[in-house]
Amino acid sequence: MESGIDIAYRLAEKTRVPGHVNRVIVLSDGDANVGATSHEAILKLIKSHRDAGITLSTVGFGSGNYKDTMMEQLADKGDGNYSYIDSESQARKVFSEQVSGLLLVVAKDVKIQVELNPDVVRSYRLLGYENRDIADKDFRNDKVDAGEVGSGHSVTAVYDVVLTATKGSPVTVRLRNKAAEGDTPAVETAFPMDVAAIAPTFEAAPQSLRLAAAIAEFGEVLRKSPHAASVHLEDVQRVAQGAATQRADQQELLDLIRRAGAITGGSSGGLAKTAK
Fold first, then answer.
1. End-to-end CA distance of the chain, in Å?
2. In a domain, 258, yes or no
3. Whole-number pLDDT of residue 271
């Protein structure tokens, strides 16, 4: 991996044009077993070229010995983005339908801070993203590196929130980012949630939220989270079926849930029942 990345960077340096997209794309299983095999050595190489204006994105392939963490860290250090290919349809999606997101960064050092209102929120929990967390004090510290957003790129974070009242806005989301080009100061924008957006019941929530809840709960069950100890995959499938459309990726999700249920016997893993 190290020698391949080094060759790619040397080629990119020869053809680098200021103001243009200058990006290395690494396709790998993330298993660095020849050359500089440590994370630290490869990440240091990537950082030096990133500072010179050549960014890096990663596309993961393989299973079994696949190193997901390595591929994600490479893209993060290279100010790029990360995708995983597990089928021909996913390859078409990444390299054709969404290729602009792979190549073109529209905002850099993007940080998102979610502020919960203690007057109306009793408890909350973020599901996943543990390896993306930064200290609260670093949100406005622009020396702390953050993620990049590609053209057309979207990200979903799921919180399990218990409310004590619905008379006030429960959450304010703050977005802080720098422009894609140049070394301009970061800009911060706040987005308070409208109280009217709180659904009276889970069934009345938007389709996108119910589907995201099903996906998050599916992950909780698979990783045997104690928060999903009383939930069965049949519960997850019920919520997912009620929210899924005929889109191929959503139908693939339903198939994965069915297959997981067949393998585990519908084992327990409770977000669909407790999501607020």
1. 45
2. yes
3. 43
Q: Measure the CA–CA gap between 229 and 274, rounded to whole angstroms.
A: 12
Tokens of 99: 């290729």
Task: Give per-residue pLDDT as tens, 98-117.
Answer: 888 777 778 888 899 999 99
pLDDT tens per residue across span 153-163? 777 889 999 99
Domain limit, last residue, from 60, 82, 103: 103
Same domain, 95 and 133: no
Q: Indicate left, alpha or beta for 192 from its phi (over 0: left) and psi (-120 to 50: alpha).
A: beta
**Reported pTM:** 0.74
Task: List 83's β-bridge partners, or say none.
Answer: 59
The dihedrals phi and psi of 122, each to the nearest 5 degrees, come to -85, -40
Tokens 């078409």 identify what position?
A: 92
Verify that 9 and 78 share a domain, yes or no.
yes
Token pair for 155: 């990200």
Which DSSP state fits 83? E
